[in-house]
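Quick one, T. Sequence first:
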Amino acid sequence: MQLPTILVLIGLAGLFAAITWHLRGRAQTRAAVRAGYFHAVAPEFSKLRQVVADTGFPRVSGMWQGDTFDLQAVPDTLTFRKLPALWLLVTLPAPLPVRGTLDMLLRPMGTEPFTHFMQLPTQIATPASLPPEAVLRCDDPTALPDADLVARHVAGLDKTRLKELVISPKGLRIVWLMEEADRTRYLIFRDAEMGATALPPAQLRPLLTALQALRDDLLETA
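Structure tokens:
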């Protein structure tokens, strides 16, 4: 093998090693950033517990103003003809005086990775007081909470970000759109990286408060 050829091969091997090293470093940085998605809100909770899911994003549980909440960050990168999204699941697990589960899903695509919406057997008409883009399913049409009560609480939430509200005997859940992938980077490079900035406490608090207020109203009504 001639010397120029050997030098070219050595150069290509060095370039490949440099690219591999760079990509490995980016992967490690991305993993650390994703795992720290709830770091900014962590000081607001007591008895905090955290695990990191297979997606690299964390799931945490802790007490906030006397109630235990569960937080999950769920990336959705598989929806066809839609920008990848990062969803925040805020759950207030607490026994409630309702006999059935009501699931309100806004703008359903049928591919949402975070919901059991389609497992509920009965779809019901959307009351006029609720957003027209909402679809409702339940497991017992005779055990629904008052539609006007639900509407009062939904009215205070940003409908462009609200994706799902679940009311069940075991507790409440809001699913919230936190972020969509950058359109240009995704269309050109298929770069769907999200969650580069930790969840701001100011964006989380209204959701925690909304679930507490809905819980209190359901208890008072019962």
